[in-house]
Design goal:
Layout: E1 7-11, E2 15-24, E3 27-37, E4 43-44, E5 47-48, H1 51-65, E6 71-76, E7 82-89, H2 93-103, E8 115-121, E9 129-138, H3 139-151, E10 155-161, H4 162-170, E11 177-183, E12 188-194, E13 197-204, H5 208-219, H6 223-232, H7 241-261, E14 276-280, H8 289-297, E15 300-303, H9 315-323, H10 329-335
Parallel strand pairs: 1-6, 6-10, 11-14, 14-15
Antiparallel strand pairs: 1-2, 2-3, 4-5, 7-9, 8-9, 11-12, 12-13
Helix pairs in contact: 1-3, 4-10, 5-6, 5-7
């Protein structure tokens, strides 16, 4: 039987997604995929608020889909995540882990003891230093997720940024500078890369829930009705001009924030320009959004294909994947990180 990779796990605001891949002679194959809805307030702003509810959902997810491993790779998204290019002392891995909190203390939004810190080299060492990406996340939200996972009798073997998982699953490696944008309920992840090398990694504290609230306030209607209109009408003026106008105003701040992220490409003497944007996440399903992004940012805009890096799917699980296709890329990218 082919080796099963770590189960990629993505705990979002409204649902949990889990992906399983196994290795074939031609490359990884998706052998299982499942998702389960979460109640309101269970996860907020990337942090688990109700650990018991997440544990119960995970137990049900594993019982229903019968994943072949209980070892998971967890994707992390949080508004306080920091990812920035920096240069640190070139040290052996063990010494690097110990010294990193002291080397980057001034660049952290939280005290080192309240942060999880990592460093991803982007180039070969240059003498006594090495250039790479500093990655820092608040410790407590990650630990809360791990506690909920372990209470479900699962084991977290690997933790990584959801943005990097998205890069593994959905990046197109060519001459274009590409932006991968994942729109969630409370936050939007942006990772810009060239041929697989990250150039910008950013979390925007805006998402689908903010759009719903803005529309509800603008039209003076309940949030549930605003959500229904958002999903059904979106930005299409041919159906309901008043609703589309309200949604256009509600979406504009997010599009502006995505566009402003690209300005970092000219920092430090770099002269790169995004030519393609690949969109994923539940928020990407807003009718008319791809056209709006295309018009305002003047780039090619496509929908992310979460299975572009795998060699095939097992038909028995294909239907489950199709139901959550827009939000599947992070969990798929986490399972592609390595074997258990």
């Amino acid at each position: 039987m082919a080796a099963v990779n770590l189960i990629g796990l993505d705990i979002g605001t409204t649902s949990i997604r889990a992906a399983e891949t196994s290795n074939s002679k031609d490359g990884p194959v998706i052998s299982n995929f499942g998702h389960i809805l979460l109640g309101p307030g269970v996860v907020q702003n990337g942090a688990v608020q109700d650990e018991q509810a997440v544990t119960t959902a995970l137990k049900q997810l594993w019982a229903t889909h019968r994943f072949r491993s209980r070892k998971v790779a967890l994707g992390v998204t949080h508004q306080q995540v920091v990812v920035r290019e920096t240069t640190v002392a070139n040290l052996p891995a063990k010494e690097m882990r110990k010294s990193l909190p002291f080397q980057v203390r001034d660049a952290l939004p939280l005290a080192p003891e309240k942060s999880l810190i990592d460093f991803h080299p982007l180039a070969e060492p240059d003498g006594d230093t090495v250039r790479g990406l500093l990655v820092a996340a608040p410790k407590e939200p990650v630990l809360a997720a791990i506690r909920a996972i372990e209470a479900a009798k699962l084991r977290v073997v690997r933790v990584d940024l959801s943005s990097f998982a998205l890069l593994r699953a959905a990046s197109r490696l060519d001459e274009n500078v590409e932006a991968l944008v994942d729109i969630g309920a409370h936050a939007t992840s942006v990772i810009v890369h060239h041929d697989g090398e990250p150039l910008i990694v950013r979390t925007i504290p805006r998402g689908g829930n903010e759009i719903t609230k803005t529309v509800a306030d603008r039209l003076d209607i309940p949030a549930e009705q605003a959500e229904e209109l958002k999903c059904r009408i979106g930005l299409r003026t041919d159906t309901d001009g008043q609703t589309a106008s309200a949604l256009k105003d509600a979406v504009r701040p997010l599009i502006n924030e995505i566009g402003s992220s690209f300005a970092y490409l000219t920092a430090g003497g770099r002269q790169a320009r995004v030519s393609r944007l690949a969109l994923s996440g539940g928020g990407s399903l807003l009718p008319g959004l791809l056209d709006a992004l295309r018009a305002q940012l003047r780039v090619e805009v496509i929908a992310v294909d979460p299975v572009m890096r795998v060699r095939g799917l097992r038909r028995v699980r294909h239907g489950s994947l199709e139901q959550a296709r827009a939000s599947a890329a992070v969990s798929v990218g986490m399972t592609l990180a390595g074997a258990s």
